[in-house]
Amino acid sequence: MELFLQQMPIVINSLNVGFLQTLRLFFVTLLGAAPLGLVIAFGSMSKFKPLSIVTRVIVWIVRGSPLMIQLLIIYYFPGLVLHNPIWGGGESGRFLAASAAFIINYACYFSEIYRGGIQSVPVGQIEAGKVLGMTKGQIFWRIKLMQVVKAIVPPMSNEIITLVKDTSLARIIALQEIIWAGQAFMKGSQGISGAIWPMFFTGVYYLIFNGVLTLLLGWVEKKLNYYR
Amino acid sequence: MLNANHLKKSFDGLGVLRDISLQVNEGEVVAIIGKSGSGKSTLLRCLNNLEQVDGGTIEIDGQALVKDGVYCPAREQRAICLKMGYVFQNFNLFPHMNVLRNLTEAQVCVLKRDKEKAAAYARELLKKVGLADREAAYPYQLSGGQQQRVAIARALALDPEILCFDEPTSALDPLLTQEVLGVIRALSKEKRTMIVVTHEMNFAREVADRVVFMEEGVIVAEGAPQEVFDSEKVKAFTGLGD
């Protein structure tokens, strides 16, 4: 017990630093993937066949293969195969590569949610805008958008919560996020070695953060329930 | 007021409108009747630019929306079609806007009316369709009949010269049908120009100045209600034959 109390502040300190990196990856992915997903969604819905086919194939590949492999390929491929280490070295290089992999991966998932949301707006809504003399832009901003937002909030909440946990996959390229920070105490770090509990304890961080997100997203969903 | 000549339209090679010509004069109520699939709804949708014809001419108030199968630029299409109002079978109210906003949205963003004026006009129209007390309600809180009356008011808010109805009561039960027909009947008394695609034969007979009977994409009978309903073909359709 005495040992545990000695270790506690050191471990928490380390985990906090790791969690900060986890949060950074989470927010960068969200901010990058949300707009990129919209671009991909429009690409896959394009009436220009070659564009929609290429987009759908990319989405299929990204959604159909493990994110962990995508991380490894994106991080190692430029340096080891092309002999052009575009990511640079150190933690900042790993963060760039991880961000790229996560943004691409999540943008593809988001794009499918957006596409479903956009296509869920009944044709009659667009026609109603049309017979009232609205332009395509007015129909999108004034009629479709709010209906799309309402339709995508529940599936997006799901993805966002999954993203929080998926950030741990960046451990595979040694990004110093919270799992990496916890694991360090098994191998030995700051005079603590063979300690397994810091790794287990990282779960508490994920739980608390996801708890906050669940409440926040639930609140948004409730706000949008003013109509059916 | 409305002049449509030699309209042709086909879906996947199937002729839905086969050389249709229709004139509607100011203050006239025209009812279009016919079986499902006879092309009557498609005709109304073409007149309102919800479908594009393959050939023919549509002139509204002297302005050509399409001339010999060639459409005018999109901006002009919108301007010309503003002379037409359209009421859907399924109402198609905007679910995320309350009743008042449903009526003011296009007034403000399309006609650039002042918000206050738009709201005042909307309230006046709601009173007319008997829903003055429901302006804050959302569409899901209204009955089908109420929703359709809001939809009529929404169409009226843009001051169309011709009001079109596409089977306005087909989604309603008999009781709600009556309240909607009541509103349309009142509009006909104001000498409003209207085109009504309908299955309500008694209503067509009572309100229409002229009845058009369509079958397989052509107009097979047209004229005063009495004479159209008495013709053999229409009798076979309405089941009042023998």
Gist of the model:
The complex is a heterodimer of chains A (228) and B (242). Chain A is mostly helical and 228 residues long.
Describe the protein's topology.
The complex is a heterodimer of chains A (about 230) and B (about 240).
Chain A: H1 2-44, H2 49-64, H3 67-81, H4 90-119, H5 123-131, H6 136-166, H7 178-187, H8 197-223
Chain B: E1 2-11, E2 14-24, E3 29-34, H1 40-47, E4 55-60, E5 63-67, E6 70-71, H2 74-81, E7 84-87, H3 99-109, H4 115-128, H5 144-156, E8 162-166, H6 174-189, E9 193-197, H7 201-207, E10 210-215, E11 218-223, H8 225-230, H9 232-238
Parallel strand pairs in B: 3-9, 3-10, 7-8, 8-9
Antiparallel strand pairs in B: 1-2, 1-4, 4-5, 5-6, 10-11
Helix pairs in contact in B: 3-4, 3-5, 4-5, 5-6
Descriptors:
heterodimer; A: 228 residues; mainly alpha; MetI-like fold; 79% helix; B: 242 residues; alpha/beta; Rossmann fold; six-stranded mixed sheet; five-stranded antiparallel sheet; 9 helices; 37% helix; 27% strand
